[in-house]
Design brief:
alpha+beta, two-stranded antiparallel ribbon, PUA domain-like, 2 domains
Length: 270
């Protein structure tokens, strides 16, 4: 397989092998206008000094992440199962210190929120072997766990909106909470017993788009809990996608609690 444009990465099939020189040239020259690999500004590939991880597009909503891994290169790196469904990949460190805000690491941490695909390659004698499309499902102190995610369909992206990502900083440990796995019972109970109408703007997704859809939001961020906590339906609010995103932005940038944000946004929508 020969890559001539960045877009070719999105059509790679499992098991394809790309020469190391070809992938290197694509990454280097994707940023140079009029080069054979130029695909436009939205498809430039960002570099890291280690060259192990690269991103397509601009932060934070990058288009995809490219990971070139050599199992066993780092203590934590490698497949966790014989079926090659999960791969542990170490955060990039400088002189032994991990800076989580550094672009390469931030691209990993942000993935569950923005849901861009991760193209995982492993090194072989013939070149870079394409292992498939992955997503971050666990974030630990020194590494993330990548899980095989198949095709990133529209349905999968819609389901991703039900994931709530939070980071717990205790002994500098970052943890990803996935609502679909950790709080499915509470979410199901809430949706079963409540009308699917946004608690803030009162939008009825089904009436407007003829699609039954609503998102569940944690009123109290999971990151504030000091230990395991069983989430109850009363801890959640049903929100439309727009209000849900706005709530998270206010929480992150203004540090406001959910009730304050709810009242603030209600005033704006009236």
């Amino acid at each position: 397989m020969v890559l001539t444009k960045t877009q070719d990465l999105f059509s790679l099939l499992l098991g394809c092998t790309v020469t190391k020189r070809n992938l290197f040239d694509l990454i280097q020259f994707s940023k140079i206008k009029n080069s054979d690999y130029w695909s436009g500004g939205d498809h430039e590939i960002g570099n890291t000094p280690q060259q192990g991880i690269n991103w397509i597009g601009k932060f934070p909503t990058i288009r995809a992440l490219i990971i070139k891994a050599r199992p066993g290169s780092y203590e934590d790196d490698g497949w966790t199962d014989s079926n090659k469904e999960k791969y542990r990949y170490s955060f990039k460190a400088k002189k032994g210190s991990i800076i989580y805000t550094e672009k390469a690491n931030r691209a990993l941490i942000n993935q569950p929120e923005y849901f861009y695909p991760i193209f995982l390659f492993t090194g072989h004698r013939e070149g870079w072997y394409f292992e498939g499309v992955f997503a971050v499902t666990d974030i630990e102190t020194r590494f993330v766990t990548l899980s095989r995610n198949g095709v990133f369909s529209a349905e999968a992206q819609l389901a991703a909106a039900q994931q709530e990502v939070s980071f717990k900083e205790g002994a500098r440990k970052y943890v990803t909470h996935l609502m679909a796995e950790r709080n499915k019972g509470a979410v199901d109970a809430l949706k079963k017993n409540e009308r699917w109408v946004c608690e803030i703007c009162e939008e009825d997704f089904h009436c407007k788009y003829n699609i039954k859809y609503i998102e569940a939001h944690h009123k109290i961020p999971l990151s504030t809990y000091s230990s395991t906590y069983n989430v109850a339906p009363s801890d959640l609010a049903l929100l439309c996608p727009n209000c849900h995103k706005a709530v998270h932005i206010y929480m992150r940038e203004k540090g406001l609690e959910y009730t304050e944000i709810k009242n603030l946004l209600r005033d704006k929508t009236e």
